[in-house]
Amino acid sequence: MMRLPRSFRSLSARLLVLTVFFVMLAELLIYAPSIARFRIVYLADRLADAHIAALALEAAPTRAVDEALEKRLLRQVSAYSVELRVGEHTTYMLGGSMPPDVDAAFDLDETMAVSSIWDAAYTLAQTGNRVLQVSGASSREPGARVEITMDEWPMREEMIAYSERILLLSLVISALTAAAVFLTLHWLMVRPMGRLTEAMVRFGTDPEDQRRIHAPSERSDEIGTAEHQLAGMQRRLHAALSHRAHLAAVGEGVAKINHDLRNMLASAQLVSDSLGESRDPRVRKAVPTLVGALDRAVGLCTRVVDFARAGGPRLMLEAVPLAELIDDAAGVAGKGAAWTNGVEPGIAVEGDREQLFRVFANLARNAAEAGAKAVSATARVRDERVHVTVADDGPGLPERARDNLFRPFQGSTRPDGSGLGLAIAREIMRAHGGSIRLISSDGAGTVFRLDFAMHRERR
Question: DSSP class of residue 409?
């Protein structure tokens, strides 16, 4: 397929071409009734001239003069014959010889708009002359009716000359209108849209450079709104990228600190194990508290690293039996909460088993730590998606925790909690093309809903 040059594929060139096209189309719609009207007026004028010619012949003094005058009058009206009827009895005839055979007859008193357009087009399409019989009421005298026999070719030449004048006028009007519309739209729309496009491209090459943020104009129309919205989005994106850059730098430092800290905590755990064998009762009494504190510190370090790596590793997608996965994850909660697995054994989801295990393990651990005594999981399949509902009978989440539920380091309800569990769960669900949402949380318990892609056998 042939491609147009780049200059003809621009918005400005397309706008110019479309403007010319629609102006010419409008001129064509005007031309059709106009040429039809020209034809009717032409024929009406011939009938009026024929009426005058018949009256002139009537006033001639002698028959000899009548014959010579008759020929001159017929040449003046370009007709083979003329018939004038006034009332019911008076008839005046011009043209004594037999006229040629008539090819078409028209009554101007019965002409309709659509038929007149068709007749005009048919006349222009003719390649040879036709003999026409035209009749109609005379505009010179009320009650008079004129009928003439004439050639069509002179009328066709007049119509072609009129069409050429209309075409030339249409081209001039189209050029002037297209130029005016093009310049106006180019000034009001094309140039501002070009600046917006250039601003987006320039910002996209280096979104961290604040100098590339678009400076909106003072316009208050739709273009001005688009400029302000673009500038706002660029500022928010710049701020988000700057924030992420800072977090990335902090994350690298935290990862290094976390590695060294875990080694220190491992050494401290070895020392705490040896302290458990001490004979001093005060030391032995303090050991469980020390071991618990060390375990929490190691767990926090592990969850920080897990959160940093949540979106990093590539998913190993496979068919994951949902009921079996939930049973395995429920074991993480220990004996603090009784689990009811209502998921049918035949349901399988598409995902990475280890990553999805972390999602349900976080939910199980949170329910147990919140004080829930019973937790239930149900699933239903609809439109090749699996919707899992996890509900517990715990005391519910406080308002502050609900507002920051999936934000790291802010959504925890415990003083020593990190708030990373649900943040990690959301990142994993997003990586699987799914979602996790809090449906309700009150004194009757907390309900989460998870959305998965159903596993389909590949053929």
Answer: T
Concatenating the DSSP letter of every residue in 124-151 gives HH-SS--EEEEEEE-SSSTTEEEEEEEE
Structural element, H or E, at residue 445? strand 445-453
- 138, 51 contact by CB (below 8 A): yes
The residue written with tokens 């999602």 in the block is 359
Question: pLDDT digits over 119-159, tens only?
Answer: 899 989 988 889 888 888 877 777 788 888 888 898 999 99
- Range 318-453: architecture per CATH: 2-Layer Sandwich (3.30)
Strand partners, 442: 445
How far, in Å, CA of 431 to CA of 312, rounded? Answer: 10
What is the DSSP track for 94-131? E--SPPPPPSEEEEGGG--HHHHHHHHHHHHH-SS--E
Strand pairing partners for 147? Answer: 83, 135
CA nearest to 32, candidates 155, 153, 116, 157: 116
Q: Where are the beta strands (DSSP E) in 274-413?
A: 318-321, 338-341, 348-351, 374-382, 385-392
* Model-wide pTM > 0.70: no
Each residue's pLDDT tens digit, 354-408: 888 888 888 888 888 888 888 899 999 888 888 999 998 888 877 777 777 777 6
Domain limits of the chain?
6-176, 222-308, 318-453
DSSP 10: S
Contact predicate 365/425, CB 8 Å:
no
- Max CA-CA distance within the chain? 162
